[in-house]
Amino acid sequence: MTEMMTRIVLAKRPQGSPTPEDFRLEEAPMPQPGAGEMLVRVVWLTLDPYMRGRMDDAKSYAAPVPIGGTMEGGTVAQVLTSDNPKFAPGDYVLTHSGWCSHAVSDGKGVRKLDPAAAPLSTALGVLGMPGLTAFAGLHEHGRPKPGETLVVGAATGAVGSLVGQLAKIYGLRAVGVAGGAEKCAWAVEELGFDACLDHRAAPDAGALREQLAAACPDGIDIYFENVGGKTLEAVVPLMNQFGRIPVCGMIAWYDLGGLGMGEAPGPNLLPRTWRTILVKRLSVRGFIVTDHAERFRDFISEVPEYIRDGRVKYRESVTHGLANAPSAFLALLKGGNFGKQLVKVGAG
Ligand code: NDP
């Protein structure tokens, strides 16, 4: 009998918010590795907001997933067979095989993981791409100084939770914005944020701004932008002179489509925002984590130490089974995750 693997493919492009019908679970014959290649089985799959952008056929910093193509994504996998001298059966590796149970790899861009050094799942979260995003974005574009005030949205998520905790370690006041009382309580009580405000409970940007003004009595020096929407609108007028806004993401607006496509509802705030940038001499800087690969060495020599000594905590939301990846992803886009969203695909 032919051995089979499973994968989740993009069935069609979403119109607005994605739905379960945009994905399809497929079975396919097990891929056969060629010379110099290896066959791996996936243990952990990470779900990340950027995958929403890959579902649109829009100009961006990366190509879209084609219709019928396997959804893109980072994975931790175990080598089953290998004709690659760098990897042996049994090795755990960090790879980018996508939403699937098994994959063939030539080893390029694949990193061996030591399961004794840290839980394997952390290579996709606090010690992986989201962790590096927080670290590099904060250092390169936030340029934090002790005594300053930082605000971060999606404050209990993979990126935001590390941004806030690093800010505290570096001597800043850290104020989070998150969805719901439980997330906000965790940010303050467990992660050590000075305050965390519930954007879902605030009726509009003005109400959120009032709460932010009270939580940031000296104004805001760094706004680490993960979300856009109401939070961004609330923050901008509170920025201090020479403030910095590393633009990491804008999840509230991902369903509007790609660059130049779709308009956000509501009044045009661009003239007022632009004027604030000028008058306050703000630095607003978009970045993609891959711009800062050279920061990985600093990151990995600093952050694991903070985890060991308890100064950095992290949380994971685990969904079991590849078939449940689409529903977990749709929930992530609406705040259904609490910490790094992962899918446990296979044993290990
Ligand atoms: P998270 O783990 O933070 O999960 C996403 C969170 O976004 C949800 O849990 C939810 O949190 C929040 N959210 C969803 N909708 C809204 C909304 N309308 N308004 C406010 N918040 C909302 O994801 P990540 O930490 O992986 O990513 C955070 C951001 O960083 C994303 O924008 C992502 O695209 C970006 N990113 C950018 C990278 C880059 O290279 N530039 C690399 C990695 C991530 P809550 O319930 O608290 O509202």
Average pLDDT taken over every residue: 96
How much of the polypeptide forms β-strand, as a percent range? 15-25%
Low-confidence stretches: none
Q: Biggest β-sheet: count, sense, barrel?
A: 7 strands, mixed
CATH C-level class of the largest domain: Alpha Beta
Helix content: 25-40%
Bound molecule kinds, no repeats: NADPH dihydro-nicotinamide-adenine-dinucleotide phosphate
**Estimated radius of gyration:** 21 Å
The number of distinct β-strands equals 15
CATH homologous superfamily name of the largest domain? NAD(P)-binding Rossmann-like Domain
- Counted up, domains total 2
Total number of helices = 9
CATH topology of the largest domain: Rossmann fold
Task: Write up what this structure looks like.
α2 crosses α3 and α5 packs across α6. The two termini are 26 Å apart. The chain has two domains: 152 residues, Medium-chain alcohol dehydrogenases, catalytic domain (Quinone Oxidoreductase, Chain A, domain 1); 162 residues, Rossmann fold (3-Layer(aba) Sandwich), CATH 3.40.50. It is built from nine helices and 15 strands. 26% of the residues lie in helices and 24% in strands. The structure holds NADPH dihydro-nicotinamide-adenine-dinucleotide phosphate (NDP).
